[in-house]
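call fold(seq) -> tokens
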Amino acid sequence: MQSFPTWVPVVALALSDGQGRWLMHRRPEGKAHAGLWEFPGGKVEGTEIPVEALLREAQEELGIALEPDDLRPLAFADEANAGGNCGIVILLYSAARWKGEPVSLEGGAVGWFDLEEMQRLPKPPLDRELVRQLGSIIPQ
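ret:
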């Protein structure tokens, strides 16, 4: 009997500028959660491991290159934590080094925000949870 996954793995990037600010991406018009701010990233494809997916997504969405050794697991959120079922699980990785200048290649916008600013941004529920967790990890 073949089994099918009951959840969708998604990776996200908490890119730090080393000055207490983190990169957020605003979802472009025409996409789910349009206009809301989120950590950049996307779905893990069937043949990828999460780090590979994040390397690909960083290049596709932001035009930057990351090295696997520069990524650190930071937090995760699932829909159960955000008041829903457990269909999506976001794995948040941090990075403080990259090559290239981050820009929005898929529409929307990017910006650098400190924790207080990030908390005020309109975000999808799972990104609200990730920002909450980030706030409990980083020094104030």
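The beta strands are 8-15, 22-26, 37-38, 41-43, 72-78, 88-95, 109-113.
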